[in-house]
Design brief:
- 50% of the residues lie in helices and 0% in strands.
- The chain is mainly alpha-helical.
């Protein structure tokens, strides 16, 4: 996915769909994360012009891919100085090719929704009281055996 989306591997924004930073990943499943989910990665003329500019610097000025100037342009976007074929053919029609990438279960469900449901269930059990959390733990341990 990272190669097709032309994103840097282990960059600041590891998700091909949103632009959430690595330091915000720990907030997955919280209300803060829901606000950050609105930072959708968009394939637009601004991104394409940044990539063209960087490609020009590399080919004409001989700049290194790891140079500070190129890093200042591409690192906040976690982009690489290459154009995706999807971007080249679909951007001119106004289509955001980043929406083609299916979100992985870890990003969408396992840590986000499941954690929120489990937290809510534990809050309900705590509100009921009468050692319900201990009963829940006993039943959970029996399931995993």
């Amino acid at each position: 996915r990272v190669l097709v989306a032309c994103l840097k591997y282990f960059a600041q924004c590891p998700c091909p769909q949103c632009q959430i930073n690595k330091d915000k990943i720990i907030e997955m499943g919280t209300t803060n994360h829901l606000c950050c989910r609105n930072w959708i990665r968009v394939d637009n003329n601004n991104l394409n012009s940044c990539i063209k500019l960087v490609c020009k610097w590399i080919s004409q000025k001989g700049m290194s891919i790891t140079s500070v100037h190129i890093g200042c342009v591409l690192d906040p976007l976690s982009a690489t100085p290459t154009h995706s074929v999807f971007s080249v053919h679909l951007c001119k029609h106004g289509f955001n090719f980043y929406c083609l990438f299916i979100p992985d279960l870890l990003h969408e469900f396992e840590l986000g929704v499941c954690k929120a449901i489990l937290t809510h269930l534990l809050q309900l059990l705590h509100a009921v009281g009468y050692n319900k959390i201990q009963e829940f733990n006993k039943q959970y341990i029996q399931l995993s055996i």
